[in-house]
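Minutes, project check-in
Item: structure for the 405-residue chain
Input as provided by the requester:
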Amino acid sequence: MYSHAIPGPHPARVPAYRLHRPSGRAVVRFGDKDIYLGTYNSPESRAAYDRAICEWLEQGRRVPQPASSKTITVNKVIVAYLRWADEHYRSADGPQSREPEMMRFAFRPLKHLYGDTPAEEFGPLKLQAVRRFLIEQDLVRSQINRRIRYIQRMFEWAVSQEMIPAMIREGVLSVKPLMAGRGGVREGKTVTAVPDAHVDAIMQFLPPTLQAMVTVQRLTGMRSGELVGMTMRQINRDDVTWVYEPTRHKNSYRGYTRAIPLGPKCREALEGYLKLDPDAPLFSPEQAQQERNQLKRQARKSKVQPSQISRRKRRPRKKPGLCYDPRSYHQALRYAMELAKRAGLLKQEEFWHPHQLRHAAAERVQHEYGLDGARAFSGHHTWAVTAHYAKRDLETAKQIATKMG
């Protein structure tokens, strides 16, 4: 990974990973000093090499100092923190959020570079070396900052559990996020509103269930997680404008409530999906699959053979789930985009993500009702004004939803 020269003010080549023949160990030489890395060509020695090079680069091409052996290693802190996170990032009714999954991605380079390092010796320079490793992997700036923040939170937690000294927390928190336009780090793409034409292009390739889901999300601007979790019990139908109050949403752990008004067009789209079971998800992947199969059957030009009337497997390897999650919802839309691409109605670069429907709704409301209306409609609020504006936001959002449909 680091066998090439690094351009910049220091033209020196990166020291190579080499074999020390007398001992059979891997070695890297910084100036006139050799650092032994372990058994040649082993994963441990490769990790030690990457660690040494990252530290060397971050310390201005000064020789990194090897760590001594202590009891609590970084790996042990990671294991303990993930065990806690798996239980902590879980809603009251059981399902786990995606936070632990994202943490595991963030901790991979930390384990690779410093897994066996004593946690007491981990400091800001080592954290910057991890960040350098991420930069070399060509991650975008926002993703690098997010992963470094996960690592910082882990060390904060370890201090609170008295696993490591408090000074470690101060050290890792002293590493500030990468700033835009500095250091040559690649910037990610900004999430933008999806044009209506790109949404319309895939509608004919969606079964009715998914058409209803896209329609509701376009009209309300709700998040995908809120959309897939809709049930009858969570919809207040006492008023002309219904109000959907999801029990689980992005800020539920902060004690926030979420109220999403459903206008006339939303009610029309939901009409065929209101179920007797108040706790059953309105939108079912199994129902969508049945609708998709029916559409294929209707589009078939040749006569259906008796043996093909029912081709359902007795023991299918994978069955449709009881409800969508944000990922499966996106995958279902992606499948329709592929069909639209084959039909020449959509280009590859015009593929979109469901969250862009939320951006489109907010942009449309902002254009007509200003920033305050968009904030109320999208459910955005600041900490200071949450209680003061909660009732007014809902009334404003209900008026907007009624007018927009």
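Outcome recorded: Residues 355-378 form the longest helix (24 residues).
No further action items on this chain.
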